[in-house]
Amino acid sequence: DPEIGEKSIKVQGTITAIGSTGAIVYIQDSTVADGKHAAVQVFCNNEKLSGEKHLCSDSFDTFKKSFAIGDRIEVIADGVGVDKCQPRIEMKTNKIVVNVIEKSGTQIKPIVLKASDIASSNIKNEYNGTLVTVNGLTITGKSGANRNAKDGDNSVLTVLSRLMIIKSGTFESGTYNITGIVANFKTAGLMPRSESDFAEIK
Fold first, then answer.
1. pTM for the full model?
2. Lower CB count within 10 Å: N or C terminus of the chain?
3. Does residue 147 contact residue 172 with C-beta atoms inside 8 Å?
4. Is the pLDDT confidence value at 197 over 60?
5. How far apart are CA 140 and CA 185, in angstroms?
């Protein structure tokens, strides 16, 4: 749970995703076993690294060189906003400060959900931001860079090209166990972080 003061919010969590494009990081509370209301997006939209305290950088490559999935961090910011339908920590007037608590710690294991657990109709999805795996997803088509999929129960799920760029000609057919971050950008879906999050079932 975040600690909220009059002028700032302070939250600790383990990094589960760092966007390949866009200054987006996801952190999750490893003590919440069911993954519900356990994660939040951090929008790193300011300044460069400074001393032992790291500021989110508009040159996001600098941030990515300093942190890795599995690092446990503390984020101090003065803004809470919404990215489409999901909450996020962001800068209001003061710079976002990121302190390292534990470097290269234990990565959070994804919880297993069904496609029906991630519903577009559920705007306040309790798994928003959580790292999950959905098994047995068959790719049925694409919408721009996104992929359309359904599971064995014929529940539909959008695989979102956001944390990684899903390249044209890849993952356009086949069945996979897909790991990623639950997101709701007015369309709920799953955001894989890299190609290794697609485990093909042959």
1. 0.86
2. C
3. yes
4. yes
5. 21
